[in-house]
Each structure stands twice: as C-alpha cells, then as structure tokens.
Specification:
By secondary structure, this protein is of the alpha/beta class. 28% of the residues lie in helices and 26% in strands.
Length: 555
C-alpha cells in the first residue's frame, strides 16, 4: 500500500509515524511544501526571544533522520498543485518541474496560512509572520541587526508570545488588537491581569483599534497608522491577526468544505474515496457547544493524525477522532493564562444556559512560603451542573488546575463531581481542599440554591433598586468601594442586622467582599434572616478586573 501524506509537522508526521509502526511493508511518502518537515512551531517565539539559543533545536526531525528511523520517503520543497481523486493521483511541483504521484490512501494535512488583511503597505519588507523556522530566523536576525522598535499586529496567542519575545530582547513593543482585550478567547476578567502584566513588562497595549496603513521608509523605519490616527514607528512588524485553512486546491478538486475548511467524519474521511484530512485545515465540532470551526492546536492535530493512520491500516479497531475541547495555555511575563472548553461568547452563540463561578484561591497552602493567588472562571450548565469551560490566570499552579478541568470536561463530569476528586496534596503543592475541589463546592452551592450569585457587570443596573452591602473591613472599604455601598464587616453583621434592614427598606441586598468568601458567609446570614440576598461572584478582585478602578471611590 502507498500512503501519501500532504504536509508534515503535527498531523502529517503523526500519521506517518503511526502508519509505519503499524505496517512495515507500506510505502509512506510525505510531501512538504516548505524546507522543514518536522519542526517545533510552538517554540518559534522562544527562539526569537533568545530562550532557545540554537536554530537546530527547532528541528525535531529531518528527512534523513526520518528515513533512518522510520523508512519514510520525505520530500521537502514539494508543492501539491493538483488532485485527481478519480485517478488517485497528485500533481506535484518541484524545482525540477511538475510530476504525477499515485496513491492508495491520501492524508491531507496542509495546515493554515496567515491572514493578510487589506492594510495598505502590508508588503513592506519589515512585515513578517511567525509560522515557520525561516520566519523566526528572519525576526531574530533583524533583532540582532539592531532593531529597536516593534509593532505586533494581533494579540492572540502567537502575537502575545511574539511581543514577549521581542521585549525580552530589549525592543520597545506595541501590541495592536482590534477586539476589546488581548487574547480574545479569554474572558475579560482573565484577560485584564494579562494586560496589566504586559504593561508591567513595558509593552504598550492598544486594544479596540486596528492598523489602517503602513508607511514604508526604506532608509529609516516604517510607521503603522492606526484607525484612531495614532502613529507607531517600527523597525519590524509581526503580522499575527489569525489564520485561514489552506485547503483551496483540494476544495477545487472536489473535497467538501465548509467556510474554507475540509469536512471530515469521525475517522477523518473526506467525501472523496481514500482521502482523509486532519489538522488546521479541517472543520472540527466543538465538544461542548457543537459549534463547527477549525481548531488550530497541535494536540488535537497530532491525535487526529494517529487515529487516521489507525483507520487506514486497522479499520475495525480504530477509535473515532474525539471532538476537541480547545485547551490552550500561554506564558505572559510572570503569569500563566490558560483555558479549556467553552467561553461565554461560544455558550451564548450556542444558546446554552449556564452559571459562571469566580474563585481566587492560592496555588498551595497559604502558610507555606511562596503562596500566590490565581483567578479561575468556570462555566457550568444550569440544571445539572455539567462542566462547560474554565479559564485561569496566575503566577503558579494554573496549568495543573486547567488540565484537571480539561480532563473533567472530556469525561462529561458535573461540577459536583469535582468535590470528590482525590488530588495530590502537600503544603508545597496544593491544599487539602484543592482549588478544583473548591470549584465543586461553590458549584454545588449554586446548583442547590445555597448560594445565589450576582455579577460585576450587573452593578449599574442594581445600584438604584438594591442595597449594596460591602462586608469587608472598614480599612478595606475606606481604601476603595462602590459608591452608595453600606459597609458592615461580616464579623459584625449578626449584631447589626437591624441596620441592614433599615438601609434596605424592603429592597434586595447584594453583598460583596474581597474575593467572595466573606460575602458568602454574610449572604447565608441574610437569607436565613429573611432577606432577598445574593453574593457577588469573585468579589472586588473580579469587579476590578471587569470594571476597572474608575467606578470605585475611596481614599
């Protein structure tokens, strides 16, 4: 059997390696348009930033090493320009010209290409993407040649990593992002600490604005002109505004596509016989929401490639390709931000009713030196508490919790199941009630009515018709509080309940504290005293992340 794979790196090389392990007699040919068939594309920003010192460290495998280890016929600098599914042939273009190649099974893993928005001047030689080893080498050479100012267009994961890398090299860096905040898949309250960390690092963050044009001066610097008229000088510009599936050739050959991405079944089969597809150029169905979209992540691509090889060579034993959960993580200075599952936007789009929980636990026991706080946002389905999504940001321990929650989402667990998870505990590593267990406890309280939440976004609508009760200490309240709020520390509430009753005058009471724990205690006291009471999710920590300090008054 001849298996031909178009595209290397994640999905393609995973399929090739698995196919060889299953069938020593198969002829396996990998076609790669670029120079490198197996490279650490997720490591490219860290080479630009100097943390990965040698270019050779980015090259995971070479055609020679793949031939020696797996007997693969790897052909780089070979572009597929045509597909005839009826004849089972590909048309290839190389330096020597065009040729035909027959296949018995074909796996398409062409990946995606960087979007190039209609910005005048985008063809400047100072504008580069960061998707290949050559891109990373070029950017590092520009840094080493004396570049001083950089502009990064797009604040997604790659854009943020590129900005950090360039800042580590000492450049002045501006990030330009069209949406309201950096890392658009993140919830606002998780993105806010990331923005603050970028600014602490000396990176200028420009959100809610797009680049309008790039003025090129061959002798000096380019100037990026923003939509609001601001002008940013740049010795180099990183273009990172998104990607698009690179499936045009195959769509024209008859592969069914949806919004430019190839449609496959649960085993990676396209509508054409013996033609499979995987990776960034394929439509995936989100496990949580059912929304169909490409998922440009290395983990799902690797797994899909492996399982396609299984289906080709062991069809009766092959498992279906799992729907992705979309787990992702990024380092930003001293912080880690991570996400899994659905966010508010996708849940709203899918019409799913949900609760949102905010927690601010420490990553390990507070009495052990080095305890730091993280922020967690968790969405659960109303009614049964099914876990739908989670995000976190903090200096330490975020990766561990998001990975546990990703596993729980994959397993179809409810929030109450988290209470019973036996997670490793030592004061050095966690707490007897791990943050994941705490999510379960808070979620259980919400589901059974022990806890009713209100949210920072609701404040403007509540301030007239409700009593805002701040149960922090007098000193905390004096430093900063919501205008019109009544301050009664939670330790004094039982003795001063009459004061609350007079101030509320029949209105609902909306309680808040620093991060939610004291407000929950106060809320239980008020509910059992007959008040219409609810507790702010996440307290002042979340409120400040969502609304900023501008709404607060104090000394």
């Amino acid at each position: 059997m001849r298996i031909v794979i178009v595209g290397g790196v994640a999905a393609g090389m995973s399929a090739a390696a698995r196919a060889r392990r299953l069938d020593e007699s198969a002829e396996i040919i990998v076609l790669e348009r670029g120079e490198h068939v197996s490279f650490a594309n997720c490591g490219l920003p860290y080479y630009v930033g100097g943390e990965i010192e040698q270019q050779s460290s980015l090259l995971v495998q070479t055609p020679a090493s793949l031939r020696a280890a797996l007997n693969l016929d790897v052909r780089v600098n070979t572009e597929v320009v045509g597909l005839d599914a009826g004849a089972k042939t590909l048309t290839l273009r190389t330096a020597a010209g065009e040729e035909q190649l027959e296949y018995d099974a074909l796996i398409l893993a062409p990946g995606a290409f960087a979007l190039r928005p209609p910005i005048a001047g985008l063809d400047s030689p100072r504008v580069h993407t960061l998707r290949t080893v050559a891109d990373a080498v070029t950017l590092r050479q520009m840094v080493e040649a004396g570049a001083k100012k950089a502009v990064v267009l797009g604040a997604g994961f790659i854009g943020i990593e590129a900005a950090e890398a360039l800042r580590l090299q000492g450049l002045e860096v501006d990030i330009v992002e069209f949406t309201a905040h950096v890392l658009p898949p993140l919830e606002n309250e998780i993105a806010a600490p990331v923005t603050a960390e970028l600014r602490r690092m000396g990176i200028t963050v420009n959100t809610g604005v797009a680049a309008q044009s790039i003025e090129h001066d061959a002798g000096r610097r380019d100037t990026v002109v923003l939509g609001d008229g601001r002008r940013l000088e740049a010795d180099l510009i990183v273009l990172s505004v998104g990607v698009r599936p690179d499936a045009g050739i195959f769509e024209r050959a008859g592969v069914a596509c949806e919004r430019g991405a190839m449609i496959v079944d649960e085993h990676g089969r396209t509508n054409l016989p013996s033609v499979y597809a995987a990776g960034d150029a394929v439509v995936s169905t989100d496990r949580v929401t059912g929304i169909r979209r490409p998922v440009a992540l290395a983990g799902p691509a690797n797994r899909a490639g492996r399982q396609i090889a299984d289906h080709i060579l062991r069809p009766d034993a092959a498992r279906p390709i799992p729907a992705p959960v979309g787990t992702a993580i990024v380092r930003v200075g001293e912080l880690t931000a991570a996400m899994t599952g659905a966010n508010r936007g996708s849940l709203d789009q899918a019409g799913i009713d949900y609760h949102t929980l905010h927690l601010h636990p420490s990553q390990h026991a507070g009495y052990f030196p080095g305890a730091t706080q993280m922020s967690l946002v968790v969405h659960l389905r109303k009614g049964d508490g099914l876990l739908l999504g989670a995000q976190g940001v903090g200096k330490d321990g975020v990766d561990k919790r998001i990975d546990v929650l990703a596993t729980a989402i994959r397993a179809g667990m409810s929030v109450t199941d988290l209470i019973d998870l036996d997670l490793a505990y030592s004061p050095i590593y966690g707490s007897a009630r791990d943050p994941v267990n705490m999510i379960g406890m808070v979620g259980a309280n919400v589901l059974d009515g022990t806890l009713t939440l209100w949210y920072a976004e609701e404040w403007e609508g509540l301030r007239e018709g409700s009593l805002i009760l701040d149960v922090r200490s007098a000193a905390e309240f004096s430093a900063a509080h919501l205008p019109g709020a009544l301050n009664i520390p939670h330790t004094e509430l039982r003795e001063r309940i009459g004061e609350v009753r007079r101030a509320a005058a029949g209105r609902p009471v909306r309680v808040l504290c620093g991060q939610g724990i004291r407000a929950h205690i106060a809320n239980r006291v008020l509910l059992q005293a007959g008040f219409d009471s609810s507790s702010m999710s996440g307290g002042m920590l979340t409120l400040r992340a969502v609304l900023g300090d501008g709404v607060l008054v104090g000394n």
